[in-house]
Amino acid sequence: MNLLKYTVISFLICCTACSSKIPSPVDSITEQNIIRDVTWLASDALQGRHYRSIEARKAANYIATAWKEAGLTPLPSQNSMYLPTDDLRDSPNVAAIYKGTGDTFVCITAHYDHLKPKRNGDDRIYNGADDNASGVAALISIGNALSKVTSKIESSIVLIAFTGEEAGFVGSQHFANNAPIALNKIRGLLNLDMISRGEPNTIFLEGAPDAPRINMAIVRANAQIDLHIIRNAHPDWLYRSDQAPFIEKNVPAVFFSVEDHEDYHRVSDHADKILPELATKTTQLVFLTAIDLARPVP
Ligand SMILES: [Zn+2]
Questions:
Q1: Domain range 26-294, CATH class
Q2: Alpha carbon distance 250, 270 (integer Å)
């Protein structure tokens, strides 16, 4: 190889390497990982994750293990990621923190319980793939993405997987009433419940007018993600999932969800019916929103 040819080839190799994007934390949130976690959580082996079942505890362990592997830790003054409710028959809430430099918090939440198996029928198991294995898969992927964040953030990011939502917000109500973190230090709470069905690339957002700072962060994040966000089409939804006990205590909170669909609360809410791209992009949007909210206040 003559010198000129060598120089040109070296230059081209260098340019290719330089122009290839350095992966950012949000790129670690992939369809592959979302599908893996939804498939496990919604498998028949977990029997629908009813909040008083052994299988719900297996789901709780799966979440806590993933967060530990990502380097997240229990909340301040807690020994464990498992936070029991008042009734020891209930599976626990699971909560972990990625520490910021300040004393404020951004919370991302999703319930992991679903429904008890039917007494009879060919298919008795309520797999709850969209409701709400999809939201939990998001929490797991966000935990993993946080492990790749290198810049300092001000607010700590708290991930909470609630128990007993289907039984009447048992876990979220208990957390709000006995909060291990100061509720008035929460800059924003982002709740995900059903994020993987319906129209492609379309997610519903409730609560944004009452939480302008969260809304601005969502707008900035969505400039990168480009989801079709339908805002405030169902204000009543604010009281149909785990954000409700926090809104009642004046915590700024928003809710991401999809419309009810033909498999909602049916045994046919199966993993192979989810839209992985929608769930993944919604997860990326929520991750970027949380990082934006966690930055120092200008
Ligand atoms: Zn749900």
A1: alpha beta
A2: 36
